[in-house]
Each structure stands twice: as structure tokens, then as C-alpha cells.
Request: fold
Amino acid sequence: MIWDNLIEGLSWISFVVGGFFLFVGSLGMVRLGDFWARLHAASVIDSAGAGLILFGLMLQGGFSLVTVKLVLIVIFLFLTGPTASHAVANAAFMSGSRPQDLVEDNTDTSAKPSKSKKTATKKSKAMR
Reply:
């Protein structure tokens, strides 16, 4: 009886927290300004929100074949969600879209030096 109530409570906490992440992520997809912030909100919805909802379903289902299927779905989401977000971000970055607050990295020593020190100093002063 006590274990049943504990599992019921944990599953509902998981539902509520997962629903909160889904709501905040979907609100972020609507309200955030640029593509990069919206992409982050979409990945929060996929990983945290859906994962917690499915975890709550696992607790509700008990140990059965349904739980095994839900575990496989969670593993699939955790593997494909970040991979898809990275692929979309990489495609956008390669096509020329840049985050608004992108700062050029002048500390990379492996890249060939194509700019003189005067140009780099002017850019760093302009960024301040």
C-alpha cells in the first residue's frame, strides 16, 4: 500500500515536471527571438519533457512489456534528439546563419594566421 502510493506520487511528480518542461519549451519556441534560441528550446522539449513524461508512464505501467517498450522509446529519443539538433545547428551554421552574440576566437593557434595583429586589435576593440 505504501509502495503503491509512493510510486503513484513519483509518477505524478514526473508528469508535472515533464509537462512544465514541455510548456516552457513550447513557449520558448514561440517567444524566443532567433533560430539558435528556438533550437535550444526544441531540444529541451525533446529530451527533458518527453523523457520525464515517459518515465512517469513507466512508473504507472509497472514492470511489464509496456515498460520495456517505453525504455526503448526513451533510449531512442535520447540518442536521436541531440543528434538531430546538432545536425540542424550544423547545417544552419554552414549555410551562414550565426548566433547574435558570436565572438570570434582569436586564441586558436592551429589555424593559419590570415590577419595581422592590427586587424585583430581593431576587431577586439570594436567588440567591446
Summary: The two ends are 63 Å apart (CA to CA). The chain has a mean pLDDT of 81.
